[in-house]
């Protein structure tokens, strides 16, 4: 019996740790349920007569957007998702508004849709003087800082003052463009179409820095880029931007945002942005739990140690399975996202051999990926021979210079001469080594129709 009496302290410790774990699991389960159902909870808000009349006459509200991961994007199943999507779903449940998404491919194109009246509102715009001329902005419901992004081999960019006489790449009609031109005239601004093009110029050394939302900047780490300091006094707040002339819509949106409780907004933000938040120190309760586990290991016997070891092995196996599942999901998402792009896109290695491409690329060249993969353009019959030789030579020369290329040109396809906007950019591995080229094209006639 004295032998079994020795187990009592260890068993008491084990029970204590188990109760703490159960409590943590219960709290986590409540948070999960809340974050999943928050968009559907709560009563309808009360609207006045003018708002109800406007709502009855308005079958849908067109929301102009550009895909921006975590905020508003299409998941691997082609469904809209993200922080702004959850907020709009919640507003729809509270008001009866029906939102329809109108996807654009740059901030400039998005603003043109709003100016022309093709769209009613957007969730993707920061406030500035230019935009206030034709847009009304709702109450803010969150936000993030603007950060400077520079080359990994250059000193960290600490402020706009450090960019005097240097090139800063920004997407056209960026929210900070007018302020920078006014307050920092010595900065040489280079305006491009998208954030991706701006980052590519910094990677190649043609620009010294660019600016992005803090969450977006930390979502796409690159071996040749690094995130610098937050711009002091500059805040990228979350607004609902409404085309002027729609005061009932703005009023309804503000009422809905006011109806959000702080805990509800916090739960939705936690759902999407927790992974990009800085790591926090463990709580006192977590520290006590770990100390209890170590104390139990010290005073336990071989049977208890064996049990813990087996549980540890089981947890490691489960983590490995989860990691493999997450990796498969990420690959599937990337494949779906690439195939969803309407323009042809391809990725080639350092010898010009095709690694992968999207569905549009296959359709334009009338060939399957399996027929082209691992082969150079000059080895397959998808372009006229002269065109294939020209493009292959350009790819190999670009791999030597390592500079991105964006150009409008005429190119002979098998089905005739076409005017296209062609882009190719080098891409690098996590170790900073050149891995190959990524590129694509779009027909200029279709791009003109979109704008």
TrEMBL record:
GO biological process terms held by the UniProt record: regulation of DNA-templated transcription
EC category: transferase
EC code(s) of this entry: 2.7.13.3
Keyword RNA-binding: no
UniProt KW keywords: Membrane, Signal, Transferase, Transmembrane, Transmembrane helix
Signal sequence segment: none
GO molecular function: protein histidine kinase activity
TM region(s), chain numbering: 288-310
Pfam families: PAS, SBP_bac_3
Family membership: Belongs to the bacterial solute-binding protein 3 family.
NCBIfam families: sensory_box (TIGR00229)
Full protein name: Virulence sensor protein BvgS
Provenance organism: Pseudomonas fluorescens
């Amino acid at each position: 019996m004295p032998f079994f009496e020795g187990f009592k302290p260890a068993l008491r410790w084990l029970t204590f740790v188990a109760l703490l774990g159960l409590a943590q699991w219960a709290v986590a389960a409540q948070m999960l349920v809340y974050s999943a159902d928050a968009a559907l909870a709560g009563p309808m808000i009360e609207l006045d007569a003018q708002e109800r009349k406007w709502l009855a006459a308005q079958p849908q509200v067109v929301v102009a957007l550009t895909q921006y991961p975590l905020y508003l994007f299409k998941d691997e199943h082609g469904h809209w998702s993200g922080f702004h999507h959850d907020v709009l779903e919640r507003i729809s449940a509270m008001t009866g508004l029906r939102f329809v998404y109108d996807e654009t491919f740059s901030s400039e194109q998005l603003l043109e849709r709003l100016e022309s009246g093709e769209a009613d509102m957007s969730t993707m715009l920061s406030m500035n003087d230019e935009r206030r001329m034709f847009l009304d902005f709702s109450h803010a419901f969150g936000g993030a800082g603007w950060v400077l992004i520079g080359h990994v081999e250059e000193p960290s960019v600490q402020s706009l003052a450090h960019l005097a006489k240097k090139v800063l790449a920004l997407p056209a009609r960026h929210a900070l463009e007018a302020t920078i031109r006014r307050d920092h005239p010595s900065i040489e601004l280079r305006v491009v179409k998208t954030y991706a093009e701006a980052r590519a110029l910094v990677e190649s050394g043609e620009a010294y820095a660019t600016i992005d939302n803090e969450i977006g900047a930390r979502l796409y780490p690159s071996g040749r880029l690094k995130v610098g300091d937050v711009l002091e006094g500059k805040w990228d707040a979350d607004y609902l931007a409404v085309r002027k002339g729609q005061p009932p819509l703005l009023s309804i949106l503000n009422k809905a945002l006011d109806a959000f409780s702080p805990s509800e907004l916090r739960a939705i933000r936690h759902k999407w942005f927790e992974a990009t938040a800085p790591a926090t120190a463990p709580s006192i309760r977590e520290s006590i739990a770990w100390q209890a586990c170590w104390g139990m290991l010290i005073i336990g016997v071989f049977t208890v140690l064996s049990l813990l070891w087996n549980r540890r092995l089981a947890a490691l196996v489960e983590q490995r399975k989860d990691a493999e599942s997450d990796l498969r999901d990420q690959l599937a998402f990337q494949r779906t996202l690439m195939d969803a792009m309407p323009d042809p896109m391809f990725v080639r290695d350092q010898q010009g051999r095709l690694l992968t491409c999207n569905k549009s690329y296959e359709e334009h060249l009338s060939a399957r990926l399996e027929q082209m993969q691992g082969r150079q353009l000059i080895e397959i019959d998808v372009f006229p021979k002269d065109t294939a030789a020209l493009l292959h030579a350009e790819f190999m020369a670009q791999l030597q210079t390592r500079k991105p290329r964006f150009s409008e040109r005429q190119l002979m396809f098998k089905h005739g001469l076409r005017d296209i906007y062609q882009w190719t950019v080098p891409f690098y591995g996590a170790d900073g080594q050149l891995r190959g080229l990524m590129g694509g094209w779009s027909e200029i006639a279709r791009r003109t129709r979109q704008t």
